[in-house]
Amino acid sequence: MKYNISNNGYYGDFGGAYIPEMLYPNVEELRQNYLKIMAEPSFKEEFNQLLKDYVGRPSPLYFARRLSKKYNTKIYLKREDLNHTGAHKVNNTIGQILMAQRLGKTRIIAETGAGQHGVATATVCALMGMECIVYMGEIDIARQAPNVARMKMLGAKVVPALSGSRTLKDATNEAIRDWINNPINTHYIIGSVVGPHPYPDMVARFQAVVSEEIQWQLKEKEGKTTPDYVVACVGGGSNAAGAFYHYLENTNVKLIAVEAAGKGIHSGESAATSVLGREGIIHGSKTLLMQTKDGQITEPYSISAGLDYPGVGPMHAHLYKTGRAEFISITDDEAMTAGLELSQLEGIIPAIETSHAFAIFDHKKFKADDVVVINLSGRGDKDLQNYIDYFKL
Amino acid sequence: MKYNISNNGYYGDFGGAYIPEMLYPNVEELRQNYLKIMAEPSFKEEFNQLLKDYVGRPSPLYFARRLSKKYNTKIYLKREDLNHTGAHKVNNTIGQILMAQRLGKTRIIAETGAGQHGVATATVCALMGMECIVYMGEIDIARQAPNVARMKMLGAKVVPALSGSRTLKDATNEAIRDWINNPINTHYIIGSVVGPHPYPDMVARFQAVVSEEIQWQLKEKEGKTTPDYVVACVGGGSNAAGAFYHYLENTNVKLIAVEAAGKGIHSGESAATSVLGREGIIHGSKTLLMQTKDGQITEPYSISAGLDYPGVGPMHAHLYKTGRAEFISITDDEAMTAGLELSQLEGIIPAIETSHAFAIFDHKKFKADDVVVINLSGRGDKDLQNYIDYFKL
Amino acid sequence: MNRINQKLKEDKKLLSIYFSAGYPNLNDTVSIIENLEKNGVDMIEIGLPFSDPLADGPTIQASSTEALKNGMTTEVLFNQLKDIRKTVTIPLIIMGYFNPMLQYGVEAFCEKCQQTGIDGLIIPDLPVDVYNERYKATFEKYGLINVFLITPQTSIERINFIDSISNGFIYMVSSASVTGSSSGFGDEQTNYFKRIKNMKLKNPQIVGFGINSNETFNQATLSAKGAIIGSAFIKHLSKKGVNTIHEFVSGILR
Amino acid sequence: MNRINQKLKEDKKLLSIYFSAGYPNLNDTVSIIENLEKNGVDMIEIGLPFSDPLADGPTIQASSTEALKNGMTTEVLFNQLKDIRKTVTIPLIIMGYFNPMLQYGVEAFCEKCQQTGIDGLIIPDLPVDVYNERYKATFEKYGLINVFLITPQTSIERINFIDSISNGFIYMVSSASVTGSSSGFGDEQTNYFKRIKNMKLKNPQIVGFGINSNETFNQATLSAKGAIIGSAFIKHLSKKGVNTIHEFVSGILR
Ligand SMILES: Cc1ncc(COP(=O)(O)O)c(C=O)c1O
Ligand SMILES: Cc1ncc(COP(=O)(O)O)c(C=O)c1O
Questions:
Q1: Using N-to-C axis directions, what is the helix angle for A89-102 and A116-128, rounded to 10°?
Q2: Fewer beta carbons within 10 angstroms: which end of chain B, N or C?
Q3: Does the pLDDT value for residue C181 go beyond 70?
Q4: What's the mean pLDDT when you consider all of chain C?
Q5: 3-state SS class at A297
Q6: Which residues of A touch C97 (CB under 8 A)?
Q7: Interface contact B283, partner D, CB < 8 A
Q8: Where does B57-87+208-391 sit in CATH, by number?
Q9: How far, in Å, CA of A42 to CA of A64, rounded?
Q10: Cα-flanking dihedrals φ and ψ of residue B286, to 5°?
Q11: How much is the ipTM here?
């Protein structure tokens, strides 16, 4: 069994590029060039240099002493929250802005849910002096106000998506429409391992730095490159893809993907795609998605804007279908509680997206000598008001 | 000329421990032990490990390409904004919490202005499972709301200081009062290079990791360990102390300390201590401070809560008096503009405190081949609302 | 012979109209179709509404959303159309996104189209190569013409490839844009129309996107076989209702 | 002989009262002092207000702030007191933070004290060793007694050192706390008072902090020579005004 992408852009049954002809030249240009460009020494050098000096990589692998004690296992946190801009998202936007430059693009568009990808995109656009337009659902603009403010400070234009559920899915639709309208000078920086091939693979490769680092960091700390478990939350799935990447084909490493169950998997207000989804097409990719019997895409719900998406990337659809990864769904309440617990046990306030990954301990028991790496995908600064309101602090 | 501290706790004429007898046992215990404890291998190891795995050190030294181009000189940014909790403050709180543990203390108090030190203290208290009380001026609580929220998430108690100017100075008074009332079990984690000896020296030593890293990072990038200039903003002066530390006695390296001129040095609403201050005693230390003819401490003003302090640490008083460092005062408006410029040129939104350091280019010309290191002391997430309101973004 | 091919042989410029099935009211579908035919429209694209129509501009998006709210589904549409061939003879094409068809089952969907008297499909997000490899046989088995889009950015090789696997007409998107965005054609468009004409493709071209008036219809059909109007017609429906379709069509064909 | 030393020789428990000069009204200073003496108070600490009184609790802080607002300064205080020795004979001590004295000039300040008839100083933030090294000679030149504090946490060695350089009394802080916080003394305090008594220091001890009633005054002076009341007196002034000082003093000495 092969878990990574095939030459023709599929993970098992999932993936491909189901795009309107208007996008074909852009996507095809990218498909033909992305691997070549990523292999260029000058690209690699610039990418690695920026990751080091600008993003602050390597992000630490931190042994969480008090959390480990509480759950009687060995928990390491991969500190993507310490990246510049506060989440894993920037690994990808650094890569894509360099890609866009090499493709001769001058205008950047992006969608964003939690705003982290929007901020990470606005950031690299400022860094490179490029025009930046970020689409963001109207609801997410309200619930992630700090990130909207950051994008404005960075000189980006934030355009509200007013259709549908007015969240990430709709922001993505708007971004795609913009791209259709601006096929020559514009690069679309997708923020997760979703979208038409080659996006899922390209984004996963940029995020793969996460598991690459985990390998040598774990070697330093535990004398081996492989943990027993890697745990990550899944919205589109980019932080999980990055954390899983180098372990995909090594089945000794168990992979746990954590989805948002919202108010309960079967409450009608959920984003638990693996449980509720069926195969279909969303945003140019064949994958699992939540949809009506009729094939209309369902409006998802999660307290976390970044997991409030009705699909998962095709890699994750494949990992789910093959059983390579275990999928666990976590409710809003469980996530919030886990976020507070991490704050007070380890002094790290996680993004609410990330909090979902920390809520698995009631669902999953680990052995005392299991090495469990949790990808701490982002920090919670953007979510403070939500936490405060929730806990009435 | 010697610029660092003397054996008896003075920088030239400045320093000492002008404290009420009630504080004597605490301060004396610390004075007698701090160097010994800091020299213990187990202390060093734990400190360095936490700085690496938890804080995310080394913080990068980043060559700011677009900024350098604009000002036609070579500007490197020391990225303390990438530290866990978002500023240099945590270097010190990590050190002090380990110190407090070794002194057998179980309860931690702190003052905070911008809230960064409060957050950094609340963070290390969560990490070590210690009780934490943070004093913060009522006005600062209002203008740095995100950091108040963070402290609460981290389980700290935030107590408003209601007297005087209701800012950092008064929070410090309240913290000292608490310490007087709780002399046995409590350690006071001061957040800057202020307060009675040995605090200024202890905090400077914990922050010295900044210039220690700059040395080898610059060696990698420029082939030499010394820049031509080191620039840092000064509230109490801890980030400047850290950035200057290893260069203090090397006068080839020019030091620039940037103070807050508020609405103008002579507007009556300012915190430009070097210009407006005279020798005196504040918070247990002989130093420069803004005061009336009669010796009453003046209520300072700056748009940035972290620079809104009527004194500077004794090291800086000495650097000023001896001319070892050049002091430049920057107004609110200049700082805000510089903060926006850094955001849009380099994709880095600085704390408003830090923005002051980036506003010197209208006051100070550098040569094209000068190597100028600016200490990017903190990120601006806490200040977004202030920026947005100011620029009506 | 498929009605589309027959129609394309007629010696005239063809006017094709798109509308979202189920809009403005769920049961307007049939009467809109009949009305359009009555008023001289040559071909109709029946929009099967989709929740996330990412190639569509605001007008068609809004009408799709409204149609879904009204209760439109694939099943409902086929039901509404089940007797359409008793009254309507012009070519009927279903235009919709791929996911609803996939969920219905592609073969079932095609079979149902055939039974209903649908002549062809336009599926913007079903790429040519996927169609070619996986679905061409099925479409052909049920006598359905699949219509592909080309844009000003489409390369010559690709146009030739699309032409080679097409067997009806080519949907020539007037400019790179979502539906409903352009206002009038400039040199760029007319040059593009000419350029394609000069390629002498085996399939005629029908222009879509940005046609909203007699003028743009005439411009578009100078080089092309016909033109498709979508957003402009839906705007007319929204403002003036189903009973004034003659006004709209005569405005175009004036 | 300094009035303080004379007073300490009297065979009685001494009541000393602290108040913030310039509070409640700027010019109340003299009449408060005269009133206190008239009502049998043995010694007075005249508080020189400071903007940042970090060893004081809320009551004294607030009175300091108010006094500063009223216009109190070092200069004003010395002016108010310039004729005080025409009417008042009990020992007068200025209690204040070091910075205002430093700004006035320590020597000038001491000289002015002598001229005014001030007998001693209590400067909580002037540490013993700094005093000893830098200022002792000046204080002595102007015949001023400097009073040092000890607390329950002060080590025996340090108490002995403080005793050795003191030449009046030792200010025994009742518990580790800022002013105005305690309510009554427990075993801890009384043991501490006894412990110090048993050290048989050369300087008598006067207890301060937390004395607010006849009961706490008696408790404090069981082992000590006297006691100082600050916050309780200021609270009384705030509530009942300057004219009822007799009420307060008689309540304590009842
Ligand atoms: C911190 C954080 N974690 C996770 C996610 C989810 O995205 P993905 O599943 O692509 O990692 C987001 C999305 O915004 C995020 O901000
Ligand atoms: C980011 C930042 N920089 C600078 C300062 C000023 O403090 P210091 O002068 O001690 O570095 C603060 C204080 O809160 C701060 O938060």
A1: 40
A2: N
A3: no
A4: 95
A5: strand
A6: 281
A7: yes
A8: 3.40.50.1100
A9: 37
A10: -85, 125
A11: 0.96
